[in-house]
Every structure is written in structure tokens, then in C-alpha cells.
Write a structure and sequence with these properties.
single chain, alpha/beta, 2 domains, DHBP synthase, 13 helices, about 20% strand, about 425 residues, Rossmann fold
């Protein structure tokens, strides 16, 4: 199945064999981290210095720093999803990210910084392109990645030999403090096996990467639940290459963003997709082992009947699989909660020898909730050994754009909910 397909994509590059190691999980409490803004600095918030108020958390950070300075890759929490981090300036360390994830060699990484001062150290002429400055001041730190000119300091394995580099400044206090304590930027894709649903809990990281990395910092659940938005403002007009935690609507109101486009919504670029400047563009991603059937939102279906139509549609699709001779013993249903109803996590029932596990991602009119619950739901259903997963799509507004981007990449089959 998928492993063979992914293996063929990597046939031109062999990553070093991953040694089996004991994977330690260290809890860290985000309430014990604070940041002191720098006075008389226009970007004082972005250059704030971390203060860790409890010794156990300081000890955990220092242990992670030791591993990173030794060239290892470690699992870290961010506000988006958990990341697999290594020294972004050290090629051998970056290679361990690719090896642990079994990641395609032509899928670039995002570099994470803890201050603008750190960012400038690897910018050509130590200069950040002016077009980004008002965006940085408004939205950094946060779930936004920007495309910047690269420099010889960044290994080609990070950029996949592109002339640009994707950079993010995470707002998660543990990630910020860790990068600052290292004194160097960290390359960090999601901390999962390549192609699988992204991890939003430390337990997800342990499930995928135990024995492959020495350490995971457990900072609790991720607040955003989907990867960062990737913005390329070096293009004309500027473009969102991957929707994520910062919405199209919030970017549109910022200086120089009035003509902002979204990749695959407003334009396509085959050359960019074959040689991407950012993760998430080229390969199928976020897929559980079970076959995923996505029912896309349709304006033909009213919001008052959307849940009933979804139930009718997925049951009809299930009947089609069964009629074709597909053995189905467990079915997963990932859906939204109707407005006005309390969100419950899970409901299980059996009928005619088939077990049905229904999980709610969040309230339908709250895409930020759905974003937080989507990957968690996919992973939970996969862990329960379901044969099929039917997913209810949502409108592509605000965080809904990122949700649908991920679900389309996870899906084996996509059906318009409004189709007859």
C-alpha cells in the first residue's frame, strides 16, 4: 500500500539508518514560561527573552538542548502541531529528521526562530524583506510561515536546493524558549511518520517515532491543530501556498495584501508543485491507514439539512462498498456538531455485524474547533482499526480553508455533498 508508494518516491536518495533508541517523554508546563519584551525596540515583542520559572521545566529544556546540540532530532510542542526538530544549520542533524519520518528528500522543511535577531543572522545582508515587516509585527510569533531568500548558512537539504527558505516564529512558549536556549534555528516538520495524520498530542509523536528519536517534550495539546499558513510575499501578487492557522481573511487586511491569492483556489503552478518551496504542496499527506471518503460542503445543501444529507450519503456510499464485495467490519464517521447542540467526542453502536464509531470534530459554525479536532479524530479512528472513514467537510471560510486542504490530501475519494 502506501509504504511501497512512498519508498519509490525516495529511490534516488538513501537516508542514514535510524538507530533504535530509548525515547524519553518529558512533561513541560507552559504556565511556567513567560517572556520579557525588549524596551526601546520597535519589535520588542518579537525579540522578547524567555524566563522559565520552575526548575523541572528548565531541566527539561536543557536536556532537549543537549540532544539538539549533539545533532539529534527531538519532538517538540508548537501551537500548530508537534514538530520534529533538529539544528537547521547542521546538515547531518537535518538528515535525521528525514530518516526518522521516512520523508521524501524533495519535501522542504520550515526553519523555526525565536526572535527577529536570530532570523537576521541567516538572512542575506542580515536584512528582512520590507514587505514582511508589518506582517511580522502583527502576526509573529504565531502560526504563520513566510518565504524568504535563503543563504549559504542553510543546508540544501532544508530548502531542497531552492533559492528561498520557509521560516516561522512559533508562539508556543516551550518552542520559543527551546530555540532561544539552543542559540540556533530549528528545522521542524510535523513529528509524525511521513504521510500520516499530523500529531496534536505528545502521545501521537510517541506512537509514530518511538525508538527513532531520543526525546519528546510534552507540552499538552496543540491550540491550533493544523500546520501554519505559508505566505509567499516575494511573489507578485502575494500568495498563500498552504492555508493554515492564520486565515486568508486576516492576511487580506494587512499592507500590500489586498491582491492576496490562494494556491489552487486562485491559481496553479505545476513547476512550483514539482519543485515546492514549502511543505504540503507535492505529496498526499495526513492519511490514516483506513480509506478516507470526504463529502465536501456544497452550497446546494442548506445548513439546516446538511447533517441529515451527510448521513444519507455516507450510508449510501457504504452500501456501495458492501455491494462491491468489500468486507467492512468497522466504520468511522468524522463529523461536525450541529449548531446549538453540545459537542460529544464519541458514539459507538453496532448494527448487522458492523461497528460504527462516530466522532465529532467540533461545532460546525466554529472551524477553529474543527481544526483542533480533525487530526485527533483521524488518529483515533485509525487506532480503533476501522476499515472506512467517512468525513463531513465544512465551508472554506476562516480556518475552514485549512481544514479542507488537509482533508482533501487525506482522502482516497472525494464526493460533492450536493451531487444527486
Amino acid at each position: 500500500m502506501r509504504p511501497a508508494l512512498l519508498s519509490s518516491r525516495r529511490s534516488l536518495h538513501f537516508w542514514p539508518r535510524v538507530s533504535v533508541m530509548n525515547t524519553k517523554v518529558l512533561p513541560v508546563d507552559i504556565t511556567h514560561f513567560r517572556f520579557q519584551a525588549q524596551p526601546d525596540d520597535e519589535f520588542g515583542v518579537q525579540n522578547a527573552k524567555p524566563v522559565i520559572t520552575k526548575e523541572t521545566d528548565q531541566t527539561a529544556i536543557l536536556e532537549a538542548v543537549r540532544e539538539l546540540k549533539a545533532g539529534q532530532a527531538v519532538g517538540i510542542p508548537t501551537e500548530t502541531v508537534y514538530g520534529l526538530a533538529a539544528n537547521a544549520l547542521q546538515e547531518d542533524a537535518v538528515a535525521k529528521i528525514f530518516a526518522a519520518k521516512n520523508r521524501p528528500a524533495d519535501n522542504p522543511l520550515i526553519v523555526h526562530v525565536s526572535s527577529l535577531d536570530m532570523l537576521k543572522t541567516f538572512m542575506p545582508d542580515n536584512t528582512i524583506p520590507p514587505v514582511y515587516l508589518p506582517i511580522i509585527k502583527k502576526l509573529w510569533p504565531g502560526p504563520l510561515t513566510i518565504i524568504l531568500p535563503s543563504s549559504p548558512m542553510i543546508p540544501s537539504t532544508v530548502t531542497c536546493s531552492q533559492p528561498t527558505v520557509a521560516v516561522r516564529f512559533p508562539s508556543h512558549p516551550v518552542a520559543r524558549a527551546l530555540i532561544d536556549a539552543c542559540g540556533f534555528p530549528l528545522a521542524a516538520p510535523s513529528a509524525n511518520s511521513s504521510g500520516k495524520p499530523s500529531p496534536t498530542l505528545a502521545s501521537h509523536v510517541f506512537h509514530d517515532l518511538q525508538g527513532k528519536i531520543p526525546l519528546i517534550l510534552d507540552g499538552g495539546p496543540c491550540d491550533v491543530g493544523v500546520e501554519s499558513t505559508v505566505l509567499d510575499a516575494l511573489r507578485t501578487p502575494p500568495a498563500i501556498l498552504r492555508p493554515g492557522g492564520i486565515t486568508y481573511e486576516s492576511l487580506l487586511s494587512l499592507p500590500h495584501m489586498n491582491k492576496l491569492q490562494v494556491y489552487r483556489k486562485h491559481f496553479v503552478d505545476e513547476a512550483l508543485e514539482q519543485a515546492p518551496t514549502t511543505p504540503g504542496m507535492k505529496y498526499r499527506h495526513y492519511s490514516p491507514d483506513a480509506k478516507v471518503v470526504l463529502f465536501e460542503h456544497s452550497d446546494k445543501v442548506s445548513e439546516t439539512t446538511v447533517h441529515e444529507v451527510f448521513e444519507t450519503k455516507w450510508k449510501s456510499e457504504l452500501a456501495g462498498f458492501q455491494k462491491a464485495g468489500v468486507t467492512v467490519r468497522k466504520v468511522g464517521v468524522l463529523q461536525t456538531t450541529p449548531e446549538g447542540e453540545a459537542c460529544h467526542w464519541e458514539q459507538v453502536q453496532s448494527k448487522d455485524g458492523v461497528e460504527y464509531i462516530e466522532i465529532q470534530m467540533g461545532r460546525r459554525g466554529h472551524p477553529e474547533e474543527v481544526a483542533r479536532g480533525m487530526f485527533k479524530g483521524l488518529r483515533e479512528l485509525d487506532s480503533r482499526g476501522v476499515d472506512l472513514i467517512f468525513v463531513q467537510g465544512i465551508p472554506e471560510l476562516h480556518e475552514g480553508m485549512a481544514v479542507m486542504n488537509r482533508l482533501r490530501k487525506a482522502a482516497s475519494k472525494i464526493i460533492d455533498l450536493g451531487e444527486l
